[in-house]
Amino acid sequence: MSVETVLGDVAHGGVVVARIDGKVTFVTGGLPGERVLVDVRERGTRFDRGVVTEVLDPHPQRVVPPCPVAGVCGGCDWQHADADLQRELKRRVVEEQLRRLAGIDWEGEVVEVLPRWNWRTRMRYRVANGRPGLRAKRSHDLVPLPDEGCRIAVTQDPGERPGAGELQVVDAHSGHVEIVDGRVAGEPVVTERAGGRDYRVAAEGFWQVHPHAADVLVDAVLRSLEPRAGERAVDLYCGVGLFAGALDGRGCDVLGVELNKEAVAYARRNVPGARFQAASVDRFLGRLPKRADLVVLDPPRKGAGRAVVGAVAAMGPRAISYVACDPAALARDLAFFVAAGYEVTRVEAYDLFPQTYHIECVATLTRNSPLH
């Protein structure tokens, strides 16, 4: 049975908040201020989850999603909001997380990065009855691709795949590669380009999925650190050497640390002038240099954590650039840095994942500098 309610503000995770029968309910498919009917589908001890079944009083920036499975497939969260509202919703989330978890007042903007459609260069599908599909929102159920394919993917419709169980599609700078049930059909190594430099990466390896993301983030990190030739730099969670390459290009002495051994092997080829260690960052802390001038942190979604932050601060870098794909984890780690004697001088936010709730931020930390 659906319940009528007026939706509150946006919350992290592609939802808006409602209070139904006195209980906080995270609602998908709605926009702030809308009067809607909500079907409560998941009940918990602290909060419930619901889905909008009908919009009675729409937000002025609500639009008709171009994808027929928007709201069902788990790939997109905000197709029903226009581009300006999507960025505003993401801005509010970053602002709220920084204020609540780190005590930082942030009034920045979310920078638009085009294209907003057909941007996802890496897709992973499950295949049923020969037809690729994507998982439903908060479910393992499979949603078959519509006839027009996935609107956010570079390769919108990969076609029928009889007998396959899983399909990965990679649209790299060097070309198109497919991986069917773990077997690469095409080149197993692709080339990506960022900051005027080529990077080799395994077809199944990690690289930013928006075609302009790597360039955007390299530019942001270089602005953040303002590296000078001869400075000692540490790149933690370095992957195949994206930021290490940018710092090496500015004449820095770079050490990169990355858990994935295959990624480290590529990093050594991509940036032969830098040094790389294949190790868990958490377990490498005791082997970090005593001093460093610059540090780049690009941790996984869960963030770096208190121990890593403490070890980074102990090296006494003059500047730290923290690249984050989760604003909550970013805010928690920034609070640790502040406690360790660093100040957040800038936070930049980029809409590198249009139509979804995801957002990328780059924070700059220095000692004894005011926030602006």
From TrEMBL:
The record's GO molecular-function terms, alphabetically, read:
rRNA (uridine-C5-)-methyltransferase activity
Asked if the record carries the keyword S-adenosyl-L-methionine, the reply is yes
Q: Which CDD domains match?
A: AdoMet_MTases (cd02440)
Single GO BP term = rRNA base methylation
Give the matching Gene3D superfamilies: Nucleic acid-binding proteins, Vaccinia Virus protein VP39
Domain TRAM residue range list: 1-54
Q: Supply the alphabetized keyword list.
A: Methyltransferase, S-adenosyl-L-methionine, Transferase
Tell me the domain of life: Bacteria
Positions binding S-adenosyl-L-methionine in this chain are Q208, Y237, E258, D298
Annotated active site: C325 (nucleophile)
Question: PANTHER family in the record, alphabetically?
Answer: RNA M5U METHYLTRANSFERASE, TRNA (URACIL(54)-C(5))-METHYLTRANSFERASE
What is stated as this protein's family in its record?
Belongs to the class I-like SAM-binding methyltransferase superfamily. RNA M5U methyltransferase family.
In its UniProt entry, what is this protein called?
tRNA/tmRNA/rRNA uracil-C5-methylase, TrmA/RlmC/RlmD family
From which source organism is this entry? Tessaracoccus oleiagri
